[in-house]
Structure formats: structure tokens, C-alpha cells
Amino acid sequence: MIDLYTAATPNGYKASVALEELGLPYEVHYLQLGKLEQKADWFLKINPNGRIPAIVDRDADNFAVFESGAILIYLAEKTGKLMPAGAKGRSRVIQWLMFQMGGIGPMMGQANVFFRYWPEKYQAAIDRYQNESRRLFEVLDGQLKDHEYLAGDYSIADIANWCWARTYPWSGVSVDGLDHLQRWLTAVGERPAVQRGVQVPKKPEVAEDEDPAKRIAQVQTILQR
Predict the structure, then answer these.
(1) pLDDT attached to residue 70
(2) Which domains, and CATH codes, for the chain?
(3) What one-character DSSP code corresponds to residue 202?
(4) How many CB atoms neighbour CB 58 within 10 A?
(5) Angle between helices 123-145 and 179-189 (to 10 degrees)
(6) Do 99 and 161 touch, CB atoms closer than 8 A?
(7) What is the pTM of this model?
(8) How would DSSP label each residue in 136-176?
(9) What does the pLDDT look like over 76-87, one tens digit per residue?
């Protein structure tokens, strides 16, 4: 049994989608980010960085894993699924997983902050992160031109990138003209396990508000994730 500590964010969805795809039994523990439950002492013992998601594998002496990419690798290796056994195939999957972890996630995350939440509009910052997110989408589109999935067969690399790329409207990033990316977004989104996985974390408790003081509080909450 896996204990999943999560909330409704792209990184949170990565873990629940993977668990659904792999058919592993798990119990969900929702953390209220607005109340900074992820910073509580009990949770910091699971993830010293105070972020979601995190898991605890009860079947492995309550082994804790934090960082969403590390969770995906751990679950894939635990089950022998969604990750090739060969060195080259495994490397391809990890390369595209790291592409999301180091590029797609941080750039879209910053686009979200400046485009959606920051109480003042800094157009240079908005343009910077939206343009870089679009550039990374173009890289995905180029890879998907000649490949059904990012690294050969469907894998944790697709799960990680899809959970972020699907949120492009919220980041204000266009996917116009990226036909291969759009095809892939639809195909992954139609998988039953994916559809179940994105229904697991509750909807975000943080919403847009015109009150500047509350908007600042929202930004602080997001940055604490």
C-alpha cells in the first residue's frame, strides 16, 4: 500500500496518474496548501523540502519518496512498468522526464505566477516565461512529429510532461500550430487511468481575486508549494 500526500497541482497529478496507470493500491492524504499543511513538522519528516507530492511505501518499511520525478522513477522501477529495462531506453525516458522537471514545470510555474497571481503586471516577466514555455512546447512538438510518445512507448515521461502541458491555457501559452503536441495531449488525456488520476486531488482552494492583499497571499501560498 502506498500513502500519497498530494494536492491539486500538476506535480500532484503526476503521482496520482502514475499510481492509477500502474494499478497500485494507494491511500490519498490531501494537504491544504493554503493552510501550509505541507510545512507541518509531521510532513517535513516525509519531505524535508515541504512540498507535494510525497509518498510512503508501507510495503518497503515505510520508505518515503519526495520530488515528483523521483516518485515516478521509484514507482516505475517498483513495478517494472512505464520504464524500459534497457539502458538506452531507460535513459531516453529519464531525459524527457528531466526535460519536464528542469524546463516545462519551472517555466510554466513562473508564467502562472506572473500571468495569473502577481498583484502587479510585469509584462517583461510575463513575456519571458510565456515565450520560454512556448519554446519548450515546440521542442515537444518536434519530438512528437516522428514519435507517438516522447521516449518510445508510453512512459512516465509522458505522464510528467502531460500533467503540465495540459494546463497551457492557465499559463496563457498558445499551442496553435503545434499539431503533434495537440494530438499527444488528446491521446494521453483519453487514457482511462489518466482521467482517473486527475480526479484524485481535490480542486485547488486558491482562486483569482481582485483584492490585492488577497492576491499577494495567494502568491505566497503558491510559492510555498
Answers:
(1) 98
(2) 2-81+198-213 (3.40.30.10), 87-192 (1.20.1050.10)
(3) P
(4) 14
(5) 80
(6) yes
(7) 0.91
(8) HHHHHHHHHHS-SBTTBSS-HHHHHHHHHHTTHHHHT---T
(9) 999 999 999 999
